[in-house]
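Hi R.,

As promised on Friday, here is the backbone we talked about, encoded as structure tokens. Could you run it through your design pipeline when you get a chance and send me back a sequence?
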């Protein structure tokens, strides 16, 4: 029995033509494309994407010879309740970063630093940057920073956590 996705792929291939490079092409000629545009109100049928739907990343990792730091996004900070300090854990097997609000300072707490006039959002920690660079296999050969991460908020035993994956 064929899987639904396989059946859909076969139907699409039947409808679409294949060009000389064996690539699927929706329109055989440019005239066909122009005709399709004229037959429908092109913009009316298009779905616009809200600018708020853009992903900005969970964090920015700066890794250069002058500085190693992690800057948390406003969204992450909001999910954690605007903390002044955080704790983090790295699950190397799942390649995830787990952040949580820290209300007491112990050997696992990192106090967030702020740039002038901004909310605290920066962790200055070489080991933290090196660990993230390693588990996410980041390359800083031709750049000094990268913004990335998919954010998921979770609650466990009454504590709110933010889970970040690459």
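Update: got your reply. Pasting your designed sequence below so it's all in one thread:
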């Amino acid at each position: 029995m064929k899987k639904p996705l396989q059946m859909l792929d076969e139907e699409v291939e039947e409808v679409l033509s294949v060009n000389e490079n064996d690539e699927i092409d929706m329109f055989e000629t440019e005239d066909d494309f122009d005709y399709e545009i004229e037959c429908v109100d092109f913009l009316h049928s298009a779905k616009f994407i809200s600018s708020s739907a853009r992903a900005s990343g969970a964090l920015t990792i700066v890794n250069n010879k002058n500085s190693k730091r992690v800057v948390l996004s406003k969204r992450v900070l909001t999910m954690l309740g605007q903390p002044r300090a955080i704790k983090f854990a790295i699950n190397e097997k799942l390649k995830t970063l787990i952040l949580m609000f820290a209300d007491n300072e112990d050997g696992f707490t990192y106090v967030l630093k702020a740039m002038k006039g901004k909310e605290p959002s920066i962790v200055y920690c070489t080991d933290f940057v090196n660990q993230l660079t390693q588990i996410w296999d980041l390359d800083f050969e031709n750049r000094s920073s990268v913004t990335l991460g998919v954010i998921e908020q979770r609650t466990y035993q009454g504590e709110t956590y933010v889970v970040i994956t690459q």
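One thing I noticed while checking it: Confidence is low (pLDDT under 50) at residues 2-9, 15-27, 50-54.

Thanks again,
M.
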